[in-house]
Amino acid sequence: MTKVAMVLFLGWLVAGLGVAATIHIPADYPTIQAGINAASSGDVIVIAPGVYSGSGNTNLLVDGKSLTITGETAPTECVIRCSGNVRGFIIRNCGTAVVVLKGLQVSDSYLLNQSGGAMIITDSTVELLDCLILNNQISGQNVGGAGIWCANSAVLLFNSVLDSNLVECCNSLGGGLYGENSTIELLNCTVLANESLGDLAFGGGLAVSGTAVCHIRNSIFWDNEAALGSQLAVLNGAVLDLSYSDVFDGQMGIAVTGGSTLIWGEGNFTANPRFASGPGGDWYLSEQASGQPVTSPCVDAGDALAVEVCRPFLSEPWCLNSLTTRTDQIPDAGLVNLGFHSIPTAPYTATPVPTASPTSFPTETQSPTETPISTPSSPTPIVTPSPTTEPSLTPTSAPSRK
Ligand SMILES: [Ca+2]
Question: How far is the CA of 336 from the centre of ligand 1 (A)?
């Protein structure tokens, strides 16, 4: 029996038993799309470290399947490099069936006249865990989301990075992420140096519009640029609820228009996050204890203990106390630090951490105590991306040679 036949047989066997199959790329299938096409809902696709590009490894179409697609190691080591006029992912029609992307870097898209450089998400439920969305660029009138564009979806970014994504040209929206009519949550994300260009550009880091509701906690928005709302924009009646986050320019960095609502919750502040560089990227936080001259104000500035900030991944909790913001690789302890945490890459000497009572900190279900700030008198801003920004898929996304 050939290797592929064996995999198919095993896939059939486990499907018959109701057990999720695990598909390895490139061991079982030569391209990521071939693996996605072969997978059934509930399956797990594990991508070996490497740089993936070209046909079958970009414009990855997940259509109506609940899949977990994960890099095998750290996100810096599993790179989907678009390198041109293609996206990383197109995720659509998945409804409430969750698509999980974990430990992936999606970078270097250069899309012309379309939205969603790294990925476009429509009518789906998507979780990004430990993902790096870097250096994607889109151009054209009225486009948005050089990193991520989503509509009619529920999108969670947990412990992820949007860095240096750029919407070129005019009336652009949401350099890092643009979402409309969606529920969007960012937890422990670093949104840095994204940009929307143009005199009527909104939301350098992130923009939400329409019936979108966006919750952001324990995150950093820094050095993003746009004419209106350098860091964030809440447009056309959307709701943004932000707490325990470091935001460049504070509320001055957030545009609120068209009857939208900004809930500026507890724990927000504006101070240089003092990023430091290390083996997992440039998103570590300085700490005197790890050798930098000053300690970042983002250390211990979150709303819960690091051990409590978790998402389930393959039925196991994936918690930030096993990850680090320190260049000496010591994991986060005590109150969670803001922003992205890397997987520790080197041995470290553990230090005892006093046990604190989890009940003394806010829980996920607590809502901010601040009064919503509404600005119904603000002018309605610009055009939202039209449905024509929906990707045109086949035949270019038709993948998978086996
Ligand atoms: Ca901490």
Answer: 4
